[in-house]
Amino acid sequence: MRTEGLEKAGLMGIRLRPRYLKDVSKVDLQTTIQGEQISVPICIAPTGFHCLAWPDGEMSTARAARAAGVCYITSTYASCSLEDIVAAAPEGLRWYQLYVQPNRQLNKQLIQKVESLGFKALVITVDVPKIGNRRYNVTDLKKSLLLKNLGSPEKGNSVPYLQMTPIDSAICWDDLSWFQSLTRLPIILKGILTKEDAELAVKHNVQGIIVSNHGGRQLDDVPASIDALMEVVAAVKGKIEVYVDGGVRTGNDVLKALALGAKCIFLGRPILWGLAYKGEHGVEEVLNILKNEFHTSMTLTGCRSVAEINRDLIQFSRL
Question: Which residues are identified as catalytic?
Fold first, then answer.
């Protein structure tokens, strides 16, 4: 079984311990991430090439995120320009995901651009020093797409044809200080799966971690994100915020992730499914379905606010 198939299995092995006879006539789903309020702890993970799913691509995704009052992490491999994404939803909460490029000047250019455009955090993906064995990738679409945000600084506004641009395999912990020198944005590391790396993240003064196995597409036989979450949360000891992506499909899944210490969850594939179905309205539907299910899950377990969700709600069982 590939890792992506294990995500749901990990969540299915967790049972809920509901508490009753509480006044749950009012249930508040709101929370904050990096000091910014969101309507529900269900946000949009970075995924690339949204124009494959819908003509307006990331612009539609950004509008749906704004309408839902949640955060949208824009990918380095966005198929719309950053300027167009911002213009589509100027009041939306946006973070930017960076695949570190070998060209340091290009990294600097991107970081300065997203900060000037009002993005609120920099998410550095750390689990791709090399592209994994993605056996199911479609390769015959490459000639029809453009990467709008990776033009060479030396060539002005040039836009290269779609290719998985080289990612800097030499990036290491000591390089984080260089990124921190470039921006005042909080830095989030995406792809942490172990307590050792979580401890190093705290040591290097980053502001958050997204526990993720990259949708099971990078390395087989790593833990499901939900299983790694507990280890990472224990390691950071509340010093930085921890988020999770991977395998979340129901309101109960959201509740379980938060009970295990995640500040919020990020959705990848379901967002693309909604986008392909009906553009921004499809994405809104996906978010609303999950939001309503999460409200039900909170109500039926006796949680009147996100702050009341804790480890006492969780029981582990064998499948």
Answer: 214
